[in-house]
């Protein structure tokens, strides 16, 4: 009996990591995850070896990767917290890549973001570009997958738009709302990452984007239709929208939308400039899943920081 190849996924119990793990498992990979979560946010329904994600001990990290053929890295931070910001996340990723090379891995697949740039005014996108540079310089066959706006069960943006629409009489639209997004379905992102993992190309970079490019206001209205509400949308200056969301964030215990995230939305950084690889229409996806959207607030801290 042939032993299946081993793939290591950082954060296989997380939002995107769980979809990637499912897609790799369907392709015959045995799975190991590196994670610091005690309780899975998105449990993986299959056998999986669980090891700690330990950046402070590079030797131990290499040992946890040994025997694997493939590393899929989803590690990153949305915003600085608990002393870990973008610069530290870059250094941590460098440690992970050195450990992967020391462990003799055959391929690395890195989950990035659409439109990273070392010249970006936004630290998030500059950091993503720097990590891509580290991946390319690591000396291993690699693939970089750049998702746009990922839409799926319990995603932070669309689910929480629905959460607000279900509870508030007015939706404060930052600015005109005409800036565009190009969502990709979570399961299709998993499939695209798995395809990149199995590709024979030694250096591959691709965008993960769906077929629909729509304005942010169109997205909000589509979410409202899907959950069966008629929103009163009020256009407000971006600073006022951020102030209101910041106030709500005090009660929710975390940022709802950061200034940098709004700037990225308004700059249309969640739109791909290559032909779409995803086939699932976000409008069709919302219509099919509207009854479940916004029932609970999707917490970023629960996704990445809480251990139970």
Could you walk me through the main structural features you see in this protein, from its secondary elements to its overall organization?
- The protein has two domains: 6-149 and 185-208, Rossmann fold, CATH 3.40.50; 151-181 and 211-304, Alpha-Beta Complex (UDP-galactose 4-epimerase, domain 1).
- Helix content is 41%, strand content 18%.
- It contains eleven helices and 13 strands.
Largest sheet: number of strands, sense, barrel closure: 7 strands, parallel
CATH class of the largest domain: Alpha Beta
Strand content: 15-25%
- CATH-defined superfamily of the largest domain: NAD(P)-binding Rossmann-like Domain
Mean pLDDT over the residues: 93
Globally, the shape reads globular
Q: SSE string, helix = H, strand = E?
A: EHEEHEHEHEEHEEEHEEHEHHHH
Structurally, the number of domains stands at 2
Distance between the termini: 38 Å
Helical content (DSSP H or I, runs of 4+): 40-55%
Question: Strand order, biggest sheet?
Answer: 3-2-1-4-5-6-11
Number of helices: 11
The name of the CATH architecture of the largest domain is 3-Layer(aba) Sandwich
> What is the alpha-carbon Rg in Å?
19 Å
Pairing-aware structural class of the strands and helices? Answer: alpha/beta
Structure summary, number of beta strands:
13
What ranges have pLDDT less than 50 throughout 5 or more consecutive residues?
none
Enter the CATH topology name of the largest domain: Rossmann fold
């Amino acid at each position: 009996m042939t032993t299946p190849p081993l793939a290591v996924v950082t954060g296989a119990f997380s939002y995107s990591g769980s979809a990637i793990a499912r897609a790799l498992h369907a392709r015959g990979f045995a799975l190991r995850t590196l994670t610091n979560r005690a309780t899975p946010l998105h449990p993986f329904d299959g056998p999986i070896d669980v090891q700690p994600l330990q950046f402070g001990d590079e030797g131990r990290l290499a040992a946890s990767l040994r025997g694997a053929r493939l590393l899929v890295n989803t590690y990153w931070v949305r915003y600085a917290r608990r002393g870990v910001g973008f610069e530290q996340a870059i250094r941590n990723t460098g440690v992970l890549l050195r450990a992967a090379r020391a462990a003799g891995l055959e391929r690395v697949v890195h989950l990035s973001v659409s439109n990273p740039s070392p010249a970006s005014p936004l630290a998030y996108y500059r950091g993503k570009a720097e990590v891509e540079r580290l991946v390319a310089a690591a000396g291993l066959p690699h693939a970089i997958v750049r998702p746009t706006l990922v839409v799926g069960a319990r995603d932070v943006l669309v689910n929480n738009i629905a959460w607000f629409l279900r509870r508030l009489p007015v939706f404060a639209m930052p600015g005109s709302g005409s800036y565009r997004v190009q969502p990709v379905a979570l399961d299709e992102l998993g499939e695209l990452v798995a395809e990149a993992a199995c590709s024979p190309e030694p250096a591959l970079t691709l965008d993960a984007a769906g077929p629909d490019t729509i304005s942010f206001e169109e997205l909000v209205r589509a979410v409202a239709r899907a959950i069966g509400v008629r929103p009163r949308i009020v256009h407000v200056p971006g600073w006022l929208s951020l102030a209101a969301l910041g106030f709500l964030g005090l009660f929710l215990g975390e940022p709802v939308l950061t200034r940098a995230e709004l700037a990225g939305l308004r700059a249309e950084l969640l739109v791909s400039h290559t032909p779409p690889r995803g086939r699932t229409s976000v409008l069709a996806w919302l219509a099919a899943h509207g009854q479940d959207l916004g029932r609970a607030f999707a917490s970023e801290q629960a996704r990445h920081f809480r251990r139970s």
